[in-house]
Write a structure and sequence with these properties.
This protein is an all-alpha fold. It folds into two domains: 3-96, no CATH class; 121-170, no CATH class. Helix content is 62%, strand content 0%. The protein has seven helices and no strands. It is elongated and about 75 Å long. 7% of the residues are buried.
Length: 172
Amino acid sequence: MTFAALSAFAEEYLALQRSATRHDPRRNGYDPRFLRHKEKLLRGFLLYWRSRGRPWPIPSSLLLDWIAVGTDGQHHGRDQYRYYTIRAFLHQVRIFEPATGIPENIYRPLFRRRTPYLFSDQEIARLIGAIPQLHRFHRFPPLRELTVHTLIGLLASTGLRIGEANYLCAHI
């Protein structure tokens, strides 16, 4: 594999990333800046690959060496971000070169989901029983108590999360 060929594939990969960023309405305004940073990281990795003699297929140790060369102890998430960025690219390279090495995840996940709390039947009954007392704290319209009662029952009986139930209510 030549440097020009892998660079061309990297450009196709980045074009795909750009189009996905542009068309995804859930993304915020910072994505173009992050995408430019990903481009810089990918091009830096390709230069490192070329300086190491263009080993083909790309071994997994090359990514780890590249991270170690540019490591900075003051920026804790920097190496992790570099790892995940290039690892995603190597997954794409693996499509046409199955022997491409992708190192095992050496970092903890970027975002760790909290363990969900499951309400017991008694706690749900207490919540529903406390709904009529809401008017002491807020002036709710008459149907608000029924709405909250229905919402708690829906969440408890279906296992939906509050965001999912909110989405359903907004789109019905």
